[in-house]
Amino acid sequence: MRVSTGLAPACPAMQPDIVFSQANPVQNTWYTVMDTTPNVRLIRVGLYVDVVGENIELRITADATVLLASEPESAGVHVYATFYADQQDALELTSSLAQILNPFLLEARSLKIEIRKTTALGNGTLHVNVKWARF
User: Fold this and answer.
1) Of 57, 60, 56, 20, which is closest to residue 43 (Cα–Cα)?
2) Average pLDDT over residues 19-48
3) Greatest CA separation found in the chain?
4) 39-80 pLDDT, tens per residue?
5) Residue 104 · residue 20 · CB < 8 Å
6) DSSP code of 61?
């Protein structure tokens, strides 16, 4: 329980980026990028795969709410997650470079991030980079 001291709350503490790679991922197998972690401010999730046309899915579980996004990929094209709190907590993946400049914030008392590919076009490595803070 957080007790008020009358002072302004501390700023969230930035954490080292999570850099995840899974070589030769098995089709339809979820890989944990960030295991369930308390008090997380999620700032940006970027991902890509090394094989053209693979379909990748990102699953974020925030306070028992599951957010799922899917996107067919081009090899080596970076994709970014976008969270829309005003649209029934929708999560999207987009290759728009504007996402780098416009990160989203998602805060949760408990958060987990997973990734998988749902196609089997090759053995391309899955790559994920997570920028986050702890509050």
Assistant:
1) 60
2) 94
3) 57
4) 999 988 888 888 878 888 999 999 999 999 887 766 667 787
5) no
6) E
For residue 95, give Cα distances in angstroms to 11, 33, 88, 100, 109. 30, 20, 22, 10, 29
* CATH architecture, domain 13-134: Sandwich (2.60)
Based on its alpha-carbon atoms, the radius of gyration of the chain, rounded to whole angstroms, reads 16
Boundaries of every domain in the chain: 13-134
Cα angle, residue 51 at apex, residues 47 and 55 outer, rounded to 5°: 65
- For residues 39 and 109, the answer to whether their CB atoms sit within 8 Å is yes
State the pTM of this model: 0.83
Tell how far CA 44 is from the center of its chain. 7
In the structure, what pLDDT confidence band is assigned to residue 3 with cuts at 50, 70 and 90? very low
Please give the mean pLDDT across all residues of the chain.
82
**55-61-63 Cα angle (round to 5):** 165
